[in-house]
């Protein structure tokens, strides 16, 4: 998201929503990383906050969020179940923390990790 998001008198800087999405996604069991593994690992070593690489957020005409999140999953988990859990976790987190509805969450599985 490259522009500020204004919701009911509150303005959020770019990156805030992406961070919420990243945290909500990484809390889903079976998700190995958000974005590519190397990007997530390097960012977590250098920075105190989780990487928001692999997360794209746009605001539609009705002020609903359109979210795309790229993940890697651990081998052995059902991909359709993880995708649904990610969608629900992201939608719930954004509704509770930001107070905005989500139009959709597209989940892209970019890889499978075998070390989990």
Give a written overview of the molecule.
By secondary structure, this protein is an alpha+beta fold. It has three helices and six strands. Strands 3, 4, 5 and 6 form a four-stranded mixed beta sheet that branches. A two-stranded antiparallel sheet has the order 1-2. A hairpin with a 2-residue loop joins strand 1 and strand 2. Helix 1 packs across helix 3. The longest helix has 19 residues. The relative contact order is 0.22. About 9% of the residues have low confidence.
Q: Concise description?
A:
The chain has 116 residues and is α+β, with helices and mostly antiparallel strands. It has helices at residues 16-26, 37-46, 79-97, and strands spanning 5-7, 10-12, 31-34, 55-59, 65-74, 102-113.
Map the helices and strands.
Blueprint: E1 5-7, E2 10-12, H1 16-26, E3 31-34, H2 37-46, E4 55-59, E5 65-74, H3 79-97, E6 102-113
Parallel strand pairs: 5-6
Antiparallel strand pairs: 1-2, 3-5, 4-5
Helix pairs in contact: 1-3
């Amino acid at each position: 998201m490259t522009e500020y998001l204004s919701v009911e008198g509150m303005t959020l800087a770019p990156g805030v929503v992406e961070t919420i999405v990243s945290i909500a996604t990484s809390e889903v069991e079976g998700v190995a990383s958000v974005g590519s593994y190397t990007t997530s690992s390097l960012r977590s070593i250098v920075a105190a906050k989780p990487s928001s690489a692999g997360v794209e957020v746009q605001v539609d005409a009705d002020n609903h969020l359109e979210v795309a999140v790229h993940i890697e999953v651990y081998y052995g988990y059902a991909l359709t179940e993880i995708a649904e859990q990610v969608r629900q976790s992201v939608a719930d987190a954004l509704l509770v923390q930001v107070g905005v509805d989500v139009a959709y969450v597209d989940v892209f599985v970019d890889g499978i990790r075998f070390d989990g």
